Inverse folding.
């Protein structure tokens, strides 16, 4: 049975604001901060990193399927219907930052009880925890707006049980200041206590932490584009000229594994959880076709191969059963006396021919004549041999093993064939910010007029190359299926590893080049941001929302204007619940929602959630409208 958690409003006002969980490994330290010794601050830092989680199970199980279908970057496996704008339960409801902020408060309190000279030795640790807190604060405010922050997690240190909601505009200013202070501290502090073995991210390399702090400002700048473009461009210029630098290369990327099974016994932290998710969402045909057309190797890292290897194709031939038309189009076969024999794959061949998305068109699943091969796969892709029967999914889902380390992979084999499985649990590596993301933002800001030292093309080209290399690295670290092995079942099977020359081939395509057409170049940058964020549904949705891309009638990835669901009926944020009158935060919540123009309640329709926007989304283009230059 899946672990389903609902995070009530009390999450932001109750125990998690004022104390760590009683099961927390650091509880005995937190319970008596005045007795914490020098080394324990580094333990608190390690626990803050351990609890850093922007995209946990609940987000992937509840939130991601909604944002993928609202943005047309993923398609429901049952196809689009007029009900696609409805909201479901949500997880990770804007409170992840508390899980790190509470350690920042603990560290602040411990340092306040030290002699000034001793407290100063932990300035770098405090700065790093501030960076983590700001990262999660940006993330948590994206879909919910204003957050309790300046008064949050302070009750145990004399603060209030009812922290006020800070305006997101003010929080952006505060977080920018915090990041500047952190970068300055990390660049200039001396005589510091920062044990490398307590830092699984950068092993105590504060220069890299400073780069992360500086780079993180670009996330805020991107969210300011529609509200204060001049400020956003100024931030970008400051980031590019900062002496601490930005993330620049794999050694700088915010990419790490929290723990392994030998050193920790918390499986969810080691492996990132083990429940199923995204079972009802598949790749978009338009996104997939765009990536395949341009021979983008990331398609192999973002999505799973479908179930149709050449042996399965031959099995369908042998049984005289029809093969989905779009798969058969990629098959070279011979025929003699009515018997068909698989010869080879057409076009790009393996592994490219194993990736297909689902159509975006409305009610496609009800049009069996046109789209039955995609949506009626439980019948059309079913094969029986003897007493055994299997269904071979003809399209691609998202690559789950890039998200969690405990997924059992079963190779598609014929009914009554061998059972070939990969049951290994692999400690999970997550990437939270990277060289590619930084350069995609800089390319965007350069096109919008920021004073930056390089050209937009320079940033863009660097970003594309880095993105492919980053995801190839992640795929190898996370040991996803078909990386480095073919399982010796299908002689035509190919590995998905990045091959020599593939990046250069991809970048030769005009869709992956900036050519001087201002409007098209900006759209290309946003498309690449969307692709880079394929495995980051929150970041991807924020990018769709602020850019208006995918764009109607685009020559890249086209937005579908549904005839029966107007674009202004598609949600742009998640709903907020009616606060309970027994909640200590009742009046504060009522006032916070009112000041933002939010109507609280459950099952709110898409038109309301489109019109009542979070502050950073006000003035942004409507879905499908395209960028505003």
């Amino acid at each position: 049975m899946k672990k389903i958690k609902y995070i009530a409003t009390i999450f932001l006002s109750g125990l998690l604001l004022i104390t760590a969980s009683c099961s927390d490994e650091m509880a005995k330290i937190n319970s008596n901060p005045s007795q914490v010794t020098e080394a324990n601050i580094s333990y608190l830092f390690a626990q803050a990193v351990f609890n850093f989680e922007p995209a946990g199970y609940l987000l992937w199980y509840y939130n991601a399927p909604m944002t993928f279908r609202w943005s047309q970057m993923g398609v429901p496996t049952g196809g689009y219907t007029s009900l696609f704008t409805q909201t479901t339960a949500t997880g990770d409801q804007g409170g992840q930052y508390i899980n790190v902020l509470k350690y920042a408060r603990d560290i602040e309190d411990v340092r306040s009880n030290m002699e000034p000279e001793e407290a100063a030795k932990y300035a770098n640790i405090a700065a790093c925890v501030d960076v983590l807190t700001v990262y999660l604060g940006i993330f948590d405010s994206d879909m919910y707006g204003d957050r309790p922050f300046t008064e949050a997690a302070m009750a145990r240190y004399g603060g209030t049980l009812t922290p006020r909601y800070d305006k997101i505009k003010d929080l952006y200013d505060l977080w920018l200041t915090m990041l500047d202070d952190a970068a300055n501290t990390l660049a200039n502090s001396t005589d510091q206590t920062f044990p490398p073995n307590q830092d699984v991210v950068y092993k105590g390399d504060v220069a890299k932490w400073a780069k992360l702090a500086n780079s993180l400002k670009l996330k805020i700048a991107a969210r300011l584009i529609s509200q204060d473009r001049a400020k956003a461009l100024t931030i970008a210029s400051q980031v590019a000229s900062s002496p601490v630098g930005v993330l620049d290369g794999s050694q700088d990327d915010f990419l790490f594994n929290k723990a392994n099974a030998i050193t920790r016994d918390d499986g969810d932290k080691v492996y990132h959880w083990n429940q199923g998710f995204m079972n009802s969402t598949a790749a978009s045909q338009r996104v997939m076709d765009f990536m395949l057309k341009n021979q983008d190797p990331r398609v192999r890292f973002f999505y799973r191969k479908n179930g149709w290897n050449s042996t399965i194709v031959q099995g369908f031939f042998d049984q005289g059963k029809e093969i989905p038309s779009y798969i058969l189009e990629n098959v070279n076969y011979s025929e003699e006396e009515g018997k068909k024999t698989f010869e080879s794959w057409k076009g790009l061949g393996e592994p490219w021919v194993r990736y297909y998305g689902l159509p975006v068109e409305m009610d496609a699943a009800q049009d069996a004549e046109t789209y039955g091969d995609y949506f009626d796969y439980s019948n059309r892709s079913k094969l029986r041999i003897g007493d055994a029967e299997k269904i071979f999914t003809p399209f691609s889902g998202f690559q789950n093993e890039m998200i969690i380390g405990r997924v059992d992979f079963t190779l598609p084999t014929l009914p009554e064939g061998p059972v070939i499985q990969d049951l290994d649990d692999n400690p999970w590596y997550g990437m939270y910010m990277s060289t590619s993301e930084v350069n995609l933002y800089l390319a965007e800001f350069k096109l919008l007029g920021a004073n930056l030292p390089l050209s937009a093309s320079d940033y863009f080209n660097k970003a594309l190359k880095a993105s492919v290399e980053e995801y190839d690295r992640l795929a190898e670290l996370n040991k996803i299926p078909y990386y480095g092995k073919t399982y010796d079942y299908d002689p035509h099977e190919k590995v998905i590893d990045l091959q020599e020359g593939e990046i250069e081939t991809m970048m030769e395509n005009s869709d992956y080049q900036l050519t001087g057409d201002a409007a098209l170049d900006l759209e290309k940058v946003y498309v690449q941001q969307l692709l880079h964020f394929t495995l980051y549904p929150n970041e991807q949705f924020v990018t769709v929302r602020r850019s208006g891309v995918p764009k109607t009638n685009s020559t890249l990835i086209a937005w579908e204007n549904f005839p029966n669901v107007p674009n202004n009926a598609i949600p742009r944020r998640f709903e907020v619940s009616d606060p309970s009158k027994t909640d200590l935060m009742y009046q504060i919540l009522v006032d916070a929602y009112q000041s933002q123009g939010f109507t609280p309640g459950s099952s709110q329709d898409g038109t309301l959630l489109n019109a009542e926007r979070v502050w950073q989304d006000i003035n942004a283009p409507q879905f499908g409208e395209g960028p505003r230059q």
User: Anything to note?
Assistant: DSSP finds 24 helices and 14 strands in the chain. The longest helix spans residues 456-477. Confidence is low (pLDDT under 50) at residues 1-39. Residues 247-565 form one domain.
